[in-house]
């Protein structure tokens, strides 16, 4: 029931918000998101660290076809449930600084998005997963296209078509897998439970194309090179809360899909094509980092950094090692926290100076001790300094990639150096140096802004200093998953 | 078989009601008549009956298709209040023709004898020819009627020829009789049978506007008054596919290997032409015409991959398609009338600019129906496509599935143009005024679309 309420609560809250026309709608949205956070935290706290599904729900959906409305939380999904629960109230709060037109629609779309994301991370039925996977696209598309920048219509449309195109191929793969399941002696009886896909006897050829169908769907979502062309424009044109949803949570749907579907269902396909997939991911790391170094728009810079980071997560999953998977899981949490924080800092700077361009900024640190500290913490997390959250994830991920292939590991390792280059460059150009006309008078953080950044900073250190409180939770599930891998 | 009798009687009653000075009663009376027919349809639920000396056969499947057809007609009539206001219109005749055409549709759905199929098609078509030309002063409407009539009459002729050849081959008009002929002669069926199947298919594919027999569709849909376009694209299509399903799944299932490849090729052609041409339209109504061609293509997948799941998929798809199409035309009807440009009624995409801001309800209704037609999850249209796709997967025809998936991506492109216009573009002009009853009908259709999208199991096991 807990899982079901995690999905239903935001839906109900969002639908009620639509009916409210008062300015209190912000606060109500925040309240709903905080209740949801309490539920997610409760789920995380009471989660038993074993490989089993917990907090399950299960109802018939299309009974005659064996399709069920079922969900639950296991070690793979628990951190993502926590992440979604944690980030949504912060994203809602971060929007308080700006007056959005039609606020009730705006905030209810964020909550609908949250419901769909919770659904993606907890679905146990493949078609239910698919339903939420696509449904998550609709609220964020409307958020981006209604409140976005000048080129929003064309950019978000490209994003929409691109991602849905990918997921339709996943649908073909899911339908195919569904028809491979069956009860012995009962022709025509199939099951769409994800676990029933794990033990299918697929031919190597089938493994190959199912691998690519899944890979393209998830690679577009994350995105992995060369499927990333929608991403920078969409991140830049979207209003910052939508960018945060996209980069903080939604791209994790792709990584989660790799772990949940690709690894256990098509291990032979992964064995055959894994090197190519890893190479693409590693190319993305280096390519994204190098482009990030050249950016002058802060939001675009963070977008490319996110593209680089997610490439490492994908490579870690493809390495099929315990370290790689554990690293991907904890890095999803860490990256969500860092990237949302960084986008919020960019939003704060844009709100005060009306510019996101590094050459028009500078010297902000003079008047803003609080912002400087928070920005620095998030930045260090992002460049994977030891004792911050990024270090744990990147270390495990690189360890996994090295174990898979030394050369790819060595190239992927560049992310640490290049990441430091573009992040510190951004910090230096915006915060230090002479002040420009725009940054002459720059107010430090307001109360609401501090309340967004404080929890994020706490999480950066918590994960960095004591990662075991998260790694121990996911470990049994990861070990269980690894038994499907081709030895 | 009460609905056939009732609807015929009610149609005549309506014609006489046209003599009354007041037109107020016409619309509610028609709605009551349709509801009465719908209620009596269910008296045969759960049983299989032969009627009128083995001319018609009802079973649950026929009842489900009849329900969809009557529901579509109910919604179309409920959205027709503009006739009452229009001085030129003759609502009594229109409503009578709609009821008569429903008689034809029900005969197409439940025929057991091919003669009944022919009579049903003719009853439905003749009524539609007239309704296509009902906007007497519009050259486009006249063109539509003439075009539809000439092409339609030709197609019915071909179909009749096919039926005659089938009779020549098998010695019977009865659907199950042809089936037993095919089974007893499974090693040497007459060539005439193949010719008959082909000609019958051509006639029926014309009616459901499948390529390459679709050329009439855009002009006719465009010229016909929007309300009747909605009727045409839902009722005619549903009845046509019900008829195709019955004849293919009963009579010709024994020679599946002969017709499936032909149907598969036509399916792909229909999907390609419908979807790709729709992209290039500037008129919303023409886009809907091509979209209706593409939906014929999706429905044809179910027939190409004829199997145990086909009937359920066809029922679900037709229902989802009908709900979405009628609500889309319902919104178009009010918007195009109230947002006229220099050429009169504006049926282009730009008529919808900014609609969601001025009329959130109309915007939402339209958005849901576009999402449903595009097959986006949480709407009935997604499950319709899903079920159609699974029939192909069940038969193992994966290439058609991949092609259909590609084409539905193209579909998203043109359906979303409406959503983009409504939600993301600035619009000029006053908010559109909508009568309360009209609004309830649209809301009901939208809620039904969403409910079926969330709980697709509701129709599970009915057919």
How are the secondary structure elements laid out?
The complex is a heterodimer of chains A (487) and B (463).
Chain A (H helix, E strand, L loop, with lengths): L1 H18 L5 H22 L7 E9 L4 E7 L4 H17 L8 H20 L3 H10 L1 H11 L4 H29 L13 H5 L5 H18 L9 H7 L2 H26 L1 H27 L4 H21 L3 H32 L15 H14 L6 H16 L1 H7 L1 H18 L15 H19 L2 H15 L5
Antiparallel strand pairs in A: 1-2
Helix pairs in contact in A: 1-2, 1-4, 2-3, 2-4, 3-4, 3-11, 3-14, 3-19, 4-5, 4-6, 4-11, 5-7, 6-7, 7-9, 7-10, 9-11, 9-12, 10-13, 11-13, 11-14, 12-13, 12-17, 12-18, 13-14, 13-16, 13-18, 14-15, 14-16, 14-19, 14-20, 15-18, 15-19, 16-17, 16-19
Chain B lengths: L1 H16 L8 H16 L7 E3 L4 E3 L1 H19 L2 H5 L5 H20 L3 H19 L6 H32 L4 H10 L6 H17 L8 H8 L2 H26 L4 H24 L4 H21 L5 H29 L16 H4 L1 H15 L5 H16 L2 H27 L11 H19 L9
Antiparallel strand pairs in B: 1-2
For this entry, give a set of tags.
heterodimer; A: 487 residues; mainly alpha; two-stranded antiparallel ribbon; 2 strands; B: 463 residues; globular
Helix coverage percent of chain B: over 70%
The helix tally of chain A amounts to: 20
Model regions low in confidence, pLDDT < 50 over at least 5 residues of chain B: none
Number of separate strands of chain B? 2
Could you give a short description of this structure?
The complex is a heterodimer of chains A (about 475) and B (about 475). The two termini of chain A are about 40 Å apart.
Question: Please, could you describe this protein's structure?
Answer:
The complex is a heterodimer of chains A (487) and B (463). Chain A has a two-stranded antiparallel ribbon. Chain A is mainly α and 487 residues long. Chain A contains 20 helices and two strands. In chain A, strand 1 and strand 2 form a beta hairpin. Chain A is globular and about 75 Å long. In chain B, helix 10 packs across helix 13 and helix 11 runs antiparallel to helix 14. Chain B has one domain. By secondary structure, chain B is an all-alpha fold.
